[in-house]
Design goal:
With 66 residues, the protein is of the alpha+beta class. The chain has a domain at 10-46. The protein has one helix spanning 31-39; strands at 2-3, 10-11, 18-21, 24-27. The chain has a two-stranded antiparallel sheet with strand order 1-2. Strands 3-4 form a two-stranded antiparallel sheet. The longest helix has 9 residues, at 31-39. The chain starts with a strand and ends in a 27-residue tail after the last helix. One of its GO terms (molecular function) is oxidoreductase activity.
């Protein structure tokens, strides 16, 4: 399991949508979170030590899932 950098949910790397940024693969709970990340990656990562595991939590509305 890994953490979605947009909403903070635990996600499975095996089935989650993903995107790469600066050589790191990030995993997401849904396509909406992946799109939000790809539109503005710096908003969701720790710029001092980029990692797909962090404690930053954002509001997430599951009604946005498709």
């Amino acid at each position: 399991m890994t953490i979605d950098p947009v909403c903070g949910m635990d996600v499975s790397e095996e089935t989650a949508p993903k995107a790469e940024y600066q050589g790191i693969t990030y995993y997401f709970c849904c396509e909406g979170c992946r799109k939000a990340f790809t539109n503005d990656p710096q908003k969701y990562i720790n710029t001092e030590s980029a990692s797909h595991h962090h404690g930053h939590h954002h509001a997430h509305h599951h009604g946005d899932h498709y």
